[in-house]
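[Q] Does anyone have a clean structure-token version of this?
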Amino acid sequence: MMNNNKALEFEITKFVQSNIPLIFLQKFSLDEVEKTMRSFKNKNSVENVFYFNVTQGFGEQPGVELSDYDVLLNGLTELLKTDSEQIVLIHGAESLFNGNRTDESGKLMEILSVFVHRVQTNKHYNTTIIFNGSHYDIPPELRDGAMIIENTLPDENDIYNIIEDFIRTNHLEAYTDAGNTDPNLIENLKGLSYYEITQALSFIFYEFGIKVFNSQIDSSISREIYTIKEQMLKKMGTLSIVETTENVDDIIGLDHLKAYIKEERAAFSNMNLLAKNGVELPKGILILGEPGTGKSMTAKAAANALGLKLIKFDISKIMGKYVGDSEKNIMETLKVIEHMSPCVLWIDEIEKAFSGVNDNDNQVLRRVFGILLSWMSDDNKGAFVVGTANNIDGVLPPEFLRKGRFDEIFYVSKPDEDARLLLFEDKFKKRAIPLKLHDDELEQLAGQSAGFTGADIEYICNRTARKFHLSKAEIGTNRYRETIRVLLFKEVQFVRDNREAELTAENYNELDAYYKEMYGEELEYLNNNVKNKNPLESKISEVLDSKISEKINQDIEKMLNRKRNRRKYRNADG
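[A] Here you go.
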């Protein structure tokens, strides 16, 4: 664990005194490294410490602006001709190590290879080159002469020590109780680097004063840390913290799925007991279903039910521009997730993120997918993964669905008649409108909303409620009931007219009747123009025939997928 300047200085000193030619520092800020090197130079009486920054140049202090890498290459060539002891610190040269060989990177590798050989064969040649940056892919010809120092994220003990160090550095000992740090403060700071934690402590101390360290932190302090953390994660681009207000009991239907989530809460409430007895925590669930059936709401409600924070993982932003970037990005992201665990990790539309993973030509995506699979199978430090997908058949490899990655796979169907009526009642209640319909009207509503998703019903209720409240009709009057009825059925009809046609047919006769009704005019045109067609009519017929066939095949495939998923995976409803 490398989380402060003293520890970094110790490691650098150890490697320099061991005559290691190349040291690669990963994920340290330039400020941290420069402070460490100044201290190192003073303590070890090193005369020559040279700095190179991609934007600032060579020198004993950074300064000269650069136009290209020639300054670095020429400077290194000249420096390495001398026999005097020296340290060269190079910051921001990752692009020369990304595997895409250019004239500059090729020349640098040649210089470094000669340099490594000279250090390893001449015991009196005491020179070390230190590279600092986010990540370096060290080529095989340099690996024997290189060591890596990585700035990993602090664990709970490290965070406690950082807080104590902050108190000492700012001379706050007289105003705080030693060892009385609130565990919630430590928990809230997990997932941040040493530098970020120090920054966060400065921010909250400036705003809230000494109470940050003397008592249980209140919601306002937690909120401020949350905001800071949110900013830090935004810089990564792959993770975001999601605030959740949804509760499992707010979900209509899905009784099996809700019961499963509630049952798993006990595991996360007794993590230490399970760890002590060698029992693994739950891995997670995969929720399949059509858009609008409540998958996202369930992911959010799961976090609340388990008492965990919700982190959304956008895998599509993992793919990098250069060789090795994508693999590096996902490994770094997974490390952050581990340090923020226990948490619920939500991966939305997972099938889209890995579309093409079965293609043998897409080796980078396959490697990224493999890294994620390995992490899901291993001890992921209490990250409960909730994956959501519309359909995975033929999209994701079978190994993704094996036990050990997800504990259960649930299929979420569209709500049935009873669930639809409950959804209408619930959505109107949340908009301050009691739904008062006669039995025959409720039966009509249930029939006309057949095939609607929860999202469809949410849309209808919101539009109806908006129009109702703007109409100034008073609740409880005859006008109120009639206004709601008229507005509601108008919106239901609007959705029926505009939503994508759904297949509910179970045999080919019904399919035939369904499509004759759907495409009657087009089919009649085609039948009436079988003979004596001019070139234009032939082209129109050809396009129509192709479009209708394509639509029919798509709808049939969707229907078959739904039927397969209902048979294959556990039904989320009771």
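[Q] Thanks! Anything notable?
[A] The longest strand covers residues 127-133.
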